[in-house]
Amino acid sequence: MPTGAMERKERGLETTTAVRASLQDSTLKKIHMFCQREQVMGYTLIGPAFILLGVLVAWPFMMALYFSVTDSWVGQPGTFIGLRNYWNLLHDGIFIQTLQNSFVFTFSAVFFKAILGITLALLLHRMLRFKKWVRGAVLLPWVIPTALSTLGWWWMFDSLYSVINWTLIHLGIIQVGPNWLGTPYLAKAAVITVNIWRGLPFFAITILAGLVSIPQELYEAAKTDGAGSIARFWYITLPMLKPVLAIVILFSTIFTFSDFNIVYVLTRGGPINSTHLFATLANQVGLQSGKIGEGAAVSLFMFPILMTVVYFQLRFIRKE
After folding, report:
1. Structure confidence at residue 96 (pLDDT)
2. What's phi and psi for 274, nearest 5 deg?
């Protein structure tokens, strides 16, 4: 091949390579500019979270809605029956008792957690020595797995080996130890106590964070004006903590209303269904008895109740 032809061929190859490289560079630049857009970057970052919520929350919720309007059993497809499962629940004595138990359990536990949480947060805020160690120790009930810690409480409430009964008897307070988990009103008190113990660190640490953010100049000005400790708490601390308290009470209400582990480990909903909550009753009806349709209806019955509570609490937060 002549030298001129070879040179023209090489120049042609170089030109083709340069054109391809420029096209690739321009394509990469377009892709880079497209990905740098705020909307694209935002959807890209929240995409995995949406997928996770869809798989773990939305899909099970839709399946529960479907099962709740059918007469499905575990392992057997059901037929559409409309709202019959919900209507039957309203005429079921065990469900009505569970509804009452849920409200008593939730409001009692949240009330005492709020009062004790504010008290504990104030103590932790004032404490100077070993502050970090004490704050870490306070978090232990919240960090330990619920089932594991509840087993410890189950041993303490046991009718034969109760350390609480042993202590009360040796102190001369009682002669015979009560059956904590075998008596309806004592069993209710026991599960509420364990829930308060479990959720108290969440209240205390969150409220403590709110206390730290309150400007000290407000307290100094109030003290200069002659305000006492009670007046400073009532007119400065409590109003400044209202948004924090609203948020923590909102989350605690949701967690407490849908609690399962504590009641299931301690009482299984007994004695005589006196400690059943929505979650434990749904487990008993839907999984243990196999009536998956009725169980789904039980679990979804608390959804509009929680939505109402969330609506009013969020409305209060917006006002604040």
Report:
1. 92
2. -80, -15
